[in-house]
Write a structure and sequence with these properties.
Layout lengths: L22 H21 L6 H17 L4 H11 L9 H4 L2 E8 L2 E8 L28 E8 L5 E4 L11 E2 L2 H4 L2 E3 L6 E4 L4 E8 L18
Antiparallel strand pairs: 1-2, 3-5, 3-8, 4-7, 6-8
């Protein structure tokens, strides 16, 4: 294992061997450096931010694995590395899961820790606060329904904002009627067709105006 030379750096002497770090070794050093920063912060009585807490938990698992610990022992080393009261507010919420590949005696294994820094608060960062009322999606837009048959031998998925008239050619439907429309479902959702399946779907017209004139509305870009 060796360090890479930067521009203009020379070896210690004529004939000395250069050693290069693999990507895995470079990642391990980054984790170690961040973990050492976390340890210094703790010694100063400071609470850890998310990168520091993650690095420290990963570093402890790496050390446990290197020392011959079992899978369960390595996982426990990660869970106990950072007490929940030693992280900043919000860290538990933004790190709901920690995954790390470690090298055990039986080979490489992936450790998964759920809520490594505690369950977090229901109203913490990333919390979803319902409005307490129904929220209309794309109000005032033109809507229509179409029957769509799948002729594919494989499942087909279409996401919420994909131009529906350009969907997979193995979906059979009236594409002219779908021009300028997308699926009338929440953003990020999708509709799936199994092989040979037929579905009635709702479509909603795009807002704004596309450069090719395929979406309806006045001004702006299609949404």
């Amino acid at each position: 294992m060796a360090a890479r030379r930067g521009a203009g750096q020379r070896t210690a002497g004529e004939g000395s061997a250069l050693m290069y770090l693999t990507p895995t070794e470079e990642d391990r050093l980054r984790v170690f450096a961040a973990a050492e920063l976390a340890r210094r912060a703790l010694r100063r009585g400071l609470r850890l931010n998310a990168p520091e807490a993650v690095a420290l938990a990963c570093d402890e698992m790496h050390w446990a694995a290197r020392g011959g610990a079992s899978l369960d022992e390595v996982a426990e080393a990660g869970r106990s590395a950072v007490p929940a009261d030693r992280v900043m507010d919000g860290v538990a919420e933004i790190v709901p899961e920690l995954r790390l590949e470690v090298l055990l005696d039986e080979g490489s294994r992936v450790i998964v820790l759920d809520h490594p820094f505690g369950p977090g608060r229901a109203d913490g960062p990333g919390a979803v606060r319902p409005a307490g009322r129904e929220v209309a999606l794309a109000p005032g837009r033109e809507r229509r329904r179409l029957t769509v048959h799948s002729r594919s031998r494989r499942p087909v998925r279409v996401s919420s904002h994909f131009p529906f008239w350009r969907a997979n050619r193995r979906l059979e439907f009236d594409r002219d009627a779908a021009r300028g429309f997308r699926l009338d479902i929440p953003a990020g959702a999708a509709v799936r067709w199994g092989p040979g399946e037929a579905r009635d779907v709702g479509l909603v017209r795009y807002g704004g105006r596309q450069a090719d004139g395929e979406a309806g509305g006045e001004g702006g870009r299609a949404r």
